[in-house]
Amino acid sequence: MSLIAVGTVAFDALETPFGKTDKIIGGSATYITLAASYFTKDVKLVAVVGDDFATSDITMLQEHGISTEGLQIKAGEKSFFWSGRYHNDMNSRDTLVTELNVLATFDPVIPESYQDCEFLMLGNLTPAVQKQVIQRLKRRPKLIMMDTMNFWMNTAWDELMDVINHVDVLSINDEEARQLSGEYSLRKAASKILTLGPKYLIIKKGEHGAYLFKKDQVFFAPALPLEEVFDPTGAGDTFAGGFIGYLASTGDISFDNMKRGIIYASALASFCVEKFGTERIVNLDKNELDSRVQEFVDLVQFEITMA
Amino acid sequence: MSLIAVGTVAFDALETPFGKTDKIIGGSATYITLAASYFTKDVKLVAVVGDDFATSDITMLQEHGISTEGLQIKAGEKSFFWSGRYHNDMNSRDTLVTELNVLATFDPVIPESYQDCEFLMLGNLTPAVQKQVIQRLKRRPKLIMMDTMNFWMNTAWDELMDVINHVDVLSINDEEARQLSGEYSLRKAASKILTLGPKYLIIKKGEHGAYLFKKDQVFFAPALPLEEVFDPTGAGDTFAGGFIGYLASTGDISFDNMKRGIIYASALASFCVEKFGTERIVNLDKNELDSRVQEFVDLVQFEITMA
């Protein structure tokens, strides 16, 4: 089934203890659509860039089967740019530069050919823009998932609450779940957040894995213990894109299928952090992905016969 | 099969955001033997207390089927005492008081009736004393497991390395694994530590679960997401006691059975943190434990058919 992904397509400049990059392609919608493309070839992008964006990067997305009809290219304007430096433990980072550029006036356009979409992924963006995308779809998709961040909790609380109330799956990290709910215990945080609208809540804990909560049900998948995390940029978006891409490819939104989606999502995210930016997830092959999923099976599966 | 557990039997005074206790029974060997007693009734304690220790606490251990023949009671001396205060996040604590008392001159005695033991658990103690216990057993047990802490890495490195070289399973937390190996990545840390002697390494990550590493194999179990962590004291020792108690009850030291041991260990530890000290693990019943294990199964199990 078809999937629309809205979010940023941008330039990132990254610095980690292992090295630094010039401006490379980044942005939430870039990671989401690339990750989803490993499961479904019906991925439709909604985003905006300036005319400084490389044609080769747009071609790269198209070669993954991603429709760029909803990607606006603003003549004479510059693409969103973010630059950050990770600390030695890779769990924290400093933002060095944020230039909104085209993002400051982003008015999302939904092409007519996108209107039949069944799955919608709202990548991290201004809540008001996320809401506009929902409103501009003539028919509500079967499943709407959104990602957001603490920045919007601090600056656009009411708009954020409004969008959250319209989605089926909310995906945030542990600190954001605590801030959103005012609860330290993630179990209590999940209970509260599930009263705000979403039926499902994903809490991402980075190297410590991810929870999927539903009323009275919870599933957990660890992150793969890696020799080295090279660059965490985009891992959360890759996770989200892998999850909803898997759901869209199967058309099955049962809790059991969402568990499988979490495992595939975790596998894709584990590749993402192995190289800078999108480098590792641009050219995965199916065997690599399958064997990574098998590593997750081996990591957590056990057999207990209850008496 | 029979299990010897050596460690501290002590008084603790605890302070958490939820309240505080007077002196209550604590100590690594207390938690280890109590936890193990849910799996095997052949648990033998080696420890030392002063004559300030309550007879009722010793009777409580005996009522769990724990042999106290190896528990020395030193007339005119005081038991080991530790007092600590947990911070709001429960992940860090300040030590308020440490009085070694009888522990300063602990000379472990292995009763003749203990000599047939097949499993040995060396709870956190001076490495030299842990080594003495191994030396005083006439026959090497089938499996020796040890727990230790960063304090011994800072103060008794050589003795610690010596004991580690003599055990089969080492159990430490994530920060200790990093300190012991000099590696930040837990996967790299595990590879290094597995060259120091132990064939198996357990890395405990508290609320983030635990890894079991063997050369070329790794298993992970999450901690149960709890509404509230009331008091983390003893959770690691309860985990260790549950693990080795389960192995001793089955006599099976295969990697697959160790996975089951980790799940039972995690279930017991999840009870431990629900009340102060040993309060919650003194009176568990089998149904409670089984239904907690079932929660772990539901938390992590999924079905994926690889193409």
| E-strand count of chain A | 14
Count of helical segments of chain A? 11
Beta-strand proportion of chain A: 15-25%
Briefly note the CATH topology name of chain A: UDP-N-acetylmuramoyl-L-alanine:D-glutamate ligase
Q: What would CATH call the architecture of chain A?
A: 3-Layer(aba) Sandwich
Task: Give the class-level CATH name of chain A.
Answer: Alpha Beta
Strand order of the largest sheet of chain A: 6-5-1-9-10-11-12-13-14
Helicity range of chain A = 25-40%
Question: Which H/E pattern describes the elements of chain A?
Answer: EEEEHEHEEEEHEHHEHHEEEHHHH
Structural class of chain A: alpha/beta
Please report the distance between the alpha carbons of the first and last residues of chain A.
43 Å
Number of domains of chain A: 1
Oligomer: homodimer
Q: Residue ranges of chain A: pLDDT <50 for 5 or more in a row?
A: none
How would you characterize the overall build of this protein?
2 copies of one chain form a homodimer. Chain A is α/β, with parallel strands linked by helices. Chain A has one domain: Ribokinase (UDP-N-acetylmuramoyl-L-alanine:D-glutamate ligase, 3-Layer(aba) Sandwich), CATH 3.40.1190.20. Chain A has 11 helices and 14 strands. In chain A, the strands form 2 sheets. The first copy, chain A, has a 9-stranded mixed β-sheet, with helices on both faces. In chain A, strands 2, 3, 4, 7 and 8 form a 5-stranded mixed β-sheet that branches. In chain A, helix 3 runs parallel beside helix 5. The longest helix of chain A is centred in the last third of the chain and has 18 residues, at 255-272. The first copy, chain A, starts with a strand and ends in a 7-residue tail after the last helix. Chains A and B meet through helix 7, strand 14, helix 9 and helix 11 of A and helix 7, strand 14, helix 9 and helix 11 of B. Chains A, B: GO terms for molecular function: kinase activity. Chains A, B: Residues 22-279 form the Carbohydrate kinase PfkB domain. Chains A, B: This is PfkB family carbohydrate kinase.
